[in-house]
């Protein structure tokens, strides 16, 4: 069972704003990319058609605290931890570390809650997380989830 996943990406010029730092909205894209890669690592897709009926994962909460700026060509690690697992939802905690700093420095923290839904006749309805998925995901140990700023 999995409870964490990491991706590393390089900041693209198009990720930055006129001040030369990563625009805040891109941190949410980075979180989403990590979530999608996490699902792929489990042999799944975020658009889960391996179950009937297919399920989706709309966001119901998203937040991010920014600690240090990221700039063009910085290398950033996005660390996903499963913070909470309920019958119909998952909450992820994200930590962002600038890897090309010496030593690497935490630059942001985020959190997203997603709800498992089915869609019928154009309407989404919350549904229990299918066993195929639920059996592969667990909550991270408390000591990993503890809020501490990495330096």
Write the layout of secondary structure elements.
Layout: E1 4-10, H1 24-41, E2 59-66, E3 75-86, E4 89-98, E5 105-115, E6 117-120, E7 123-126, H2 131-134, H3 142-145
Antiparallel strand pairs: 1-3, 2-5, 3-4, 4-5, 6-7
Uncertain regions: pLDDT < 50 for 5+ in a row? none
Q: Helicity, in percent?
A: 10-25%
Strand order of the largest sheet: 1-3-4-5-2
CATH architecture label name? Roll
Tally the beta strands.
Answer: 7
**What is the name of the CATH superfamily?**
Hotdog Thioesterase
Please give the CATH class: Alpha Beta
Strand content: 35-45%
Total discrete domains: 1
Task: Summarize this entry quickly.
With 151 residues, this protein is α+β, with helices and mostly antiparallel strands. The chain has helices spanning 24-41, 131-134, 142-145, and strands at residues 4-10, 59-66, 75-86, 89-98, 105-115, 117-120, 123-126.
């Amino acid at each position: 069972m999995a409870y964490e996943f990491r991706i590393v990406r390089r900041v693209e010029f198009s990720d930055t704003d006129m001040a030369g730092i990563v625009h805040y909205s891109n941190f949410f894209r980075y979180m989403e990319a990590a979530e999608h890669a996490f699902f792929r690592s489990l042999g799944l897709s975020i658009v889960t058609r391996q179950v009937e009926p297919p399920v989706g994962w709309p966001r119901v909460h998203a937040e991010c605290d920014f600690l240090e700026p990221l700039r063009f060509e910085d290398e950033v690690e996005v660390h996903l931890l499963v913070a909470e697992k309920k019958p119909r939802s998952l909450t992820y905690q994200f930590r962002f570390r600038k890897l090309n700093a010496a030593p690497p420095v935490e630059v942001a923290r985020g959190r997203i809650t997603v709800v498992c839904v089915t869609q019928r006749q154009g309407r989404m309805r919350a549904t229990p997380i299918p066993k195929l998925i639920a059996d592969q995901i667990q909550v991270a140990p408390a000591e990993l989830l503890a809020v501490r700023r990495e330096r």
